[in-house]
Description:
Layout: E1 3-5, H1 14-23, H2 29-32, H3 41-50, H4 54-57, E2 90-97, H5 102-106, H6 119-132, E3 138-143, H7 147-159, E4 165-167, H8 184-190, H9 192-199, H10 214-231, E5 236-241, H11 243-253, E6 268-274, E7 279-286, E8 294-296
Parallel strand pairs: 2-5, 3-4, 3-5
Antiparallel strand pairs: 1-8, 2-6, 6-7
Helix pairs in contact: 6-7, 8-9, 10-11
Family: Belongs to the phosphoglycerate mutase family.
InterPro entries: His_Pase_superF_clade-1, His_PPase_superfam, PG/BPGM_mutase_AS, PGM_Phosphatase
Pfam family, one: His_Phos_1
Amino acid sequence: xxxxxxxxxxxxxxxxxxxxxxxxxxxxxxxxxxxxxxxxxxxxxxxxxxxxxxxxxxxxxxxxxxxxxxxxxxxxxxxxxxxxxxxxxxxxxxxxxxxxxxxxxxxxxxxxxxxxxxxxxxxxxxxxxxxxxxxxxxxxxxxxxxxxxxxxxxxxxxxxxxxxxxxxxxxxxxxxxxxxxxxxxxxxxxxxxxxxxxxxxxxxxxxxxxxxxxxxxxxxxxxxxxxxxxxxxxxxxxxxxxxxxxxxxxxxxxxxxxxxxxxxxxxxxxxxxxxxxxxxxxxxxxxxxxxxxxxxxxxxxxxxxxx
Length: 307
């Protein structure tokens, strides 16, 4: 299992900027590139024309902004630019995956088993909490009742003025049956039937040992988010959940566009749920707050492609 450590020494070179944006590495842009005398105004303007570094600069939209918000057209350091109030016709839900656990690091399948955060996971949770603390409109936090999600939510709540954290078991990870507690690399030999079911392309395939199908996970998670949205229309809400569950939410919001992004530990997504039950993805799998911490390159998050 490989870890990436960001904040590496970066030369103020436009080609290096573009290379990092193409491979999807978050770049500590503000602290490392803007102060450098070698990074001229001409080079900066040239970089903007390529548009491929726009996600790093957060120019078109701050991570917490909605589609009608006005934002300052400049690089954002630490997410200080604020969006306007949420429209009364929809709920803005900030979806966070829990921090890292030892089982994430070891590649062991968690599912409904209750594993707590490790030290790296707590560091990640503090980083995303610091990011969300700059959002004064958050009204409440919902969390899976599993320890790794609930502890992440509690860390966020403390940074956001001791907000209430409401546990909801419908935000749990997919139940993975006989695969839970073993590594995916061991599963092919020790649980071949469950392993085959897990790799199936059928959304209605149930995993032996009490596991859920993808359709069951989808129904549970999307129904839960709809209930939350209807209860908090016009508000901004944080939801802390799990890799597979979060991917199910993306499937509901973008049924014709499959997300290829890994769901990193403490990654941030933003969904708008309208009063007409329309779902819109505003941001997905963003980990810019982890520039100065550590996150997994290939953790197991409850589905075949989660971070």
